[in-house]
């Protein structure tokens, strides 16, 4: 009887434990791992969903165990809390994109949250058979203008990156810039402007083309390999048949170009211009920028007449094929000391055929009258097409500088001559009446000459003052307009009329003129303001009027 009671108690206790265990399992949270299909291809991207029926934080799951077999996207997380018929329910869900790293059978491991585990998933990864070819998506075309160079000579590399797929589907694009193999110092590669984007139709397909030009410059002789543009990216490709999304890797290796750099010929100095084509021309311009029609291009030594203070401009234009702007020569011309030269900064232009044009303007200001020759220009260069030295020349110019009218030597002023009188002596009359009449006539003549001289001086002063006022006004207007040739001309004439005045002040004006010309024509970025020059001009104008050239005095009677 006692034994039966113990057995009954034991059975009741075991039933109670089983009931508690069943109740605990019934109320435990669940974790599920779900994929749409466990049959995928290597390029296919599929979604893994993890669902937990309790509200937890986003970092409750660690996805690092997936990195061994899969490429991972950025996980997304969402949680919700619902009340239905007075009952509370919550859930947490993660979604992450995966792509297999290899073919075969791969396993998505089990995940754990608060003691709950998901089931592992076996994935079968097959090879892709219907992916588009790389050339059907992206293509690179490269062209090098020449394969043989001399030191300092350049070739043009043109690259065309053609996108046949939607650019919005590209991920992680990476460009490999053109360069010499192993970054050899024998070649340098620089971009020419920005890439040009266009939309074109090739074989009936609308494509996007990025065209970029590079300048390949030879630095030293040798044999080199130039690698063109390379490109890599990942393309997101969607299949309309299966509705799947695939990631297609794109990797275009740079095209290699062999390039030979010949040695520089013997006998050339610092000025070394290797090119298959060179054109050098000149134009002579007046102060207003108009071409001087009197100067002939055909004659070896044309002639031109100007006056002191005038300015002319020698415009030199050099067009070269296959030479970078920084390797263009400088035109250093030794002009006569009577001519002051101011060279403007060279202006470079990239022509449509790839050639580079340099324009240099040399402003020449005449300072002294006489006969001069503006020398010819000889430019040596190496013709790479025929492998020989060539000399291109520009003609000289014979220049006659005539004195300026305002600064010319004054004309000799002849004083009014005294009237001559013949004296007739009649011996029958006394000499006193005649002597008295003679002295009276001389006194009247002297008085008339004196009055005429004073009136002439009064009339001359306003005229000179008016001339000075007009010249000063013209100078100030030219300074405001920064018309350097006209300023130089007017001030040069104006200072000759003040050469006997304040010499230190005149020297300051000349110093300001030098600063002005350096600012306008110099190669540096000098700073100059016309305020000080205007102040000095006005200061000198307020002093003694323009220098008068006095007529020679009459001999005393």
Automatic annotation (TrEMBL):
Coiled-coil annotated residue ranges, if any: none
Keywords: Signal
Zinc as UniProt keyword: no
Signal peptide: 1-28
Alphabetical list of InterPro entries matching this protein: BatD (IPR025738)
Entry protein name: Protein BatD
Species the sequence originates in: Vibrio scophthalmi
